[in-house]
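Here is one chain, start to finish.
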Amino acid sequence: MSRAALNCVKIATPALTIGGIQSATPSPGIEERIRRTGGVVDPTVSHIIRQQPRIDFTTLHLATVLAALGINGTECTTAETYWNLKANYGTRAAGANHEKVALAKAFAIPRTLQFDRREDASLAMSLRAMSADGSCPLSHSPSVSLPGGEDVTEVFTVAKLVLTIAASPITFEIDDGSLDFGIAERMEGVGVYDTECWIESRAPVIAINTPNVSHFATITVAGCQSTAGVLWLRKREAYGTHYADNTAKHLKISWYDSQVIARDISGSDAIQLPVEVRPLYNGTNPILTIAVDQAIT
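Its structure:
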């Protein structure tokens, strides 16, 4: 795909169009074997023993994607990725001169949420191709029109982190940070292509840099327990600044028990305190809960 960029992703089930795409890395995932025998110096035979195609990309559409994928990811059928071809000596090619790579089945997985108070938050995710019957799960169409759906319709930035420590809610201002969903999946198949997949483990981590170095006294050098936590992402208003806290348009990610640890304090002029929050499963509630269209409290 020369001079091409990922334009949008359209998934039939669950019905989902993903736009606002910032970057993409497609990989054919080929694992080959090259053999030489009989003391011959040069290889004489090669073959593919496994192929795990995937497309990793980042999007600004946090609420739309996380509402559909949740914290576990989800099975997708007919995931079509459209690639915007640039015209030679021009801008975007016109008409049916773009490309489409379709995945008959896929495991859509949220990877990492990146946020910075000066930037727009983004979500990195993966589409891992799955085969229904052992045949190649990918198809390529070299001459298609773009379907639409690439426009940016939602943008968020970080608002705050609130942790309940020793029965008191404490608000952490955030300069920047990330939420790693911590999903480790396993893919298996009897042939070249994977036909089964599942999550082996999940260990989410929220990592932030806060200018409130005084919070170190609360967290202590040994870390501490938090019995509730909320990460708030504030929605930006088109052609404006951002929606007011009491407007039900924001993104809320919450959890119950967690371990809170302070890392090495860094900086010279502007000192920052790095804080890591590791949610724990309490035997009852989901390890993370995502709620869209929320008012910030």
